[in-house]
Structures are given as C-alpha cells and as structure tokens.
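Researcher: Let's run the pair from yesterday's discussion. Sequence first, then tokens, for each.
Model: Starting with the first of the pair.
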Amino acid sequence: MSTVADKLAKKSSSKTSAKQVRLRLVYVDFWSAVKLSFLAAVAIAIVTVVASFLIYTVLSTTGLIGKLDDLFKAFDDNFTLSDVINLPQVMAFSSVVAILNLIVITVLGAVVAGIYNLMVKVTGGLLVGFTSN
C-alpha cells in the first residue's frame, strides 16, 4: 500500500538531506479542541456581527428599505418595514445568532474530537508525513 508521501519521495530525483518521518495522529486532546473551536467561533461571531451591520448600512443608505416600505404600503397601510427592521433590532438579532453560533461551534469541536478519538481505536489513526527542511 503506497501513500502520497511515498510517491512524492520516489518522484524526487535529487536526494536531499532532509529526514522524512511518518507519524500517526492517534489522539486529539479534548480541551485543546474545545479551545481551538471556541477561538474559531469567536472569529466567526465577530464576522457575523460586522457583516450584518455593513449589510444593513448598505441597504438603508441605498434606500432599499424605504422602497420596500412603499411596496408593503400598497398591500397594508398599517405595516411599515422600517418599524420591524431598524439598526438596534438588526444588531440584537445578529448578536443572538453570533452567540448561538459560538455555542454550537464550540460543542461541535468537542464532539468531533471525541468522535475522532473513538475512530482511532478502529482505524489506527491518521498517517501524517513530516520532513525536516
């Protein structure tokens, strides 16, 4: 059974002094996975809040919300979209979504680490090739 690292080693015509090592990843630390997924979730939460602010700013600056108000007034005179969609409500909604994403992504990182650690018992782990260049 030939791996990608073996094929690449055979294809190289010049011999290098770098030592190639093949290691197996047989354990992912639970708390390291939780911390890493939490930091990724924080970055995604910040992007979510900033993107929703920018999208709302563009929509309100271009006057699209006002035009949609006029469209909805044709169907119902009592309903205005600007009462439902304004900056505080948009930011509150995006903050709630960001917090929920933070929780879900952190839990998913922990679950994936646990599932990987269980799969290692069956598969033997992930074979990774390293070189010392």
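Model: Moving on to the second of the pair.
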Amino acid sequence: MRLVIIGAGFAGMYAALSAARLREIQGVSPDELEIALVAPEPTLVVRPRLYEQNPETLTAPLLDVLKAIDVTYVQGSVETVETQSRMVRIATAKGTKKTLSYDRVVVATGSRLFRPNIPGLAEHGFSVDSLDDAITLDKHLHGLAKRPAANGRDTVVVAGGGFTGIEAATEMPARLRAILGPDAKTRVIIVERNSAIAPDMGAGPRPIIESALSKLGVETRLGAGVASLDKSGVTLSNGEHIETETVIWAAGIRAAPLTAQIPAERDNFGRLLVDPCLRVPGVEGVFATGDAARAACDGEGNYALMSCQHATRMGAFAGNNAAAELLGVPTRPYHQKAYVTCLDLGEAGALFTRGWDRKVEMVGDVAKKTKREINTIWIYPPKAERAAALASADPERVTNL
C-alpha cells in the first residue's frame, strides 16, 4: 500500500509525521505501508516569517526528519493528479517525468498570493508570499542604498491591511533605517480597500494596531485600492499618486492551482470542500488539508483559516486519517476549537488575541516575546529523532492552544 502526500509545507509535513505515527502504533512496517512525500525540495519554508529581513535563512531541512520516520521523499512537482487511475504525474528538476501510484493521497499543496490583473502589478510589484519573492524584495531594498534619494526611493507602499500587510509594514521602518541610514526620510504607507485597518480583526484589537502604526509613523490610506503601478509609483483608486520604488502586494491568497484538478466542489478561495475527516466527498482515496481544504473547526460555524496554525493540526488529522483507512482502523474527525492570533508589530511589539472574537490577552513586549517563541521554536519541524518526531504528531495535541 502507498500513501502519497503532495507538499512539504506545514500541512504536508504534519501529514507525513502523523501517518508515520499511526503506522508505528499499529505495528505496520514501511514495506507494508509506504508513505511518500512529494515536493520540489525537502525543505520547510517558514512562510509566516517571510516579512522579516534575511529571508534566505527562513527555511528548515526536512530530509533527516523524513528519514528518521521512514517516509520516502520524492523530489519533484506534481503536475497531474489522476483520481480515477489513482496516479500522480511528477516533473523533476532535471526535466524528466515520472508517475507514482497511490492508494490514498493527501493534497497539501498550500496557497499562493492572489495577484489580480492590475496594470503594472506584475512588472513593478513585490511580495513576501514565497521564499523567492521575499529574497527578491530583500535584494531590492538593499539596492535602494545605491540610488539617489529621490523619486520615492525612501517610500514603501504596502497594498493590503490584513495580517501580512501589517506585519510587512511594521517591520519596514527598521529595515529601511538599517539599509538607508538613520537620517533617511522614510515613509511606509498601507493601502486598504476597507474603511478600517485590519478588517478581519474586529473592533477590540484595532486601537492597539492603530496606536502601533502611529508610533512607527506608518501611514494609512483607507477606503482606496491600487489602480495601477508604473516606474514612478502607484496610483490609487481615489486618484492619489504616490511616488515610490517599492510596492509590496499583500492583498489576499488562493489555494494552489492543483486543487482544480480534483473533480470536486471548491470555495471562492479554490479550497476543496472536505468532510469532518478531511476526505474530499465523491472522490475515492483523496484527502485535502491545510490551505487546500475548507474544513469546519467546530460545530459553531467557524472554518479553518489559511494559516500555519490551522495547517499544522489539519495536516496531522489528514495524515492520520488517510493512513487509518489503509490500516483498517477508525478515523478521527478534525476539530480545532482553540484559535489565537499573534500579530507582529515591529518595534512597537506585538498583539496576542484568543478566540474567534479575538479577545486581547497580551500586547507590546510581552506579546513580542511570545511571537518570537512562535516564530523561532513552535512552528519549526521536530528534531530528527524517531520517537520524538512521531510523538509530536498526535492529532489531538498538535497546535492545541
């Protein structure tokens, strides 16, 4: 039997760990149940940190962890999922093609930044969505120091006032000072279509965010969107033109395109609708998880967000359940009632909330300490020690906040 996991992000990593854990518990050998993880590189990109400086350091190796738990790593990108024949077709980095049959497959392909067809966005926009994007932005920012202090060189516009946009914007003043010098007249501006910053956070945490932006000198343009970009800067939907050489697009994500190959229902974000055990209804042998799946967290109408926090736990349930079906043991319905946010606010500290109503629990330096712990310890892979790695993937305990 073979279980194939597509993707090495947070959901894919935990799917592999959890499936291997159940295989071990059931006393089944890797020869009887092969678990194969397919990804371009055996590396976890620590995506929640890509707004930080030195993005090239924000990865974690997975090969030793996978070897420790007897998970086969298959290098390449899945181009096609053939659900009727239960086959995935893989393109390797060398340009060759190969196929891999499966008895169960877990789609853990993550998400991508949504880039609308705005004039000039593709040519002049930056992002912190992927490792390559973040490295490109970092190189661009360092290159600004070699340019004359004119034509908006010292101005950064962030399009999108949600989590990613706020974290990118609040990190930017310190990054710009480090590159351009303390005397540079830097400006950071967040552009948000909604009438309030952080539209998803609600009224409780918002004053704290607004105070942090004010403290850092970050400006906002609310109720306006980006109409176009060109070499001179960005033009907003209200007609305002801002001179800048740096526009960071942080306005929404969608499930990776591979989900469209699964003959099943998807939501407006391209996520596959799944049942409580993260199966894709009507498509035998297919599970979806992380940003590729729309899953109910509880019985109160809350659904998993496209976030690391939900992806890790969903991954653990998906891997466990896919293996459980093959091993003939009961599956476990996914549930995740605990929900927290920890929003980095740069030199103004951080903001920690709990619950779907986002009750503020910590702010400032105290919350910043928690954010650092999350970013540098909690979200990294377990050590490449078999017992510890397998123990880390109990679905009931993963991301149990």
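Researcher: Give me one sentence on the second I can quote.
Model: Residues 308-327 form the longest helix (20 residues).
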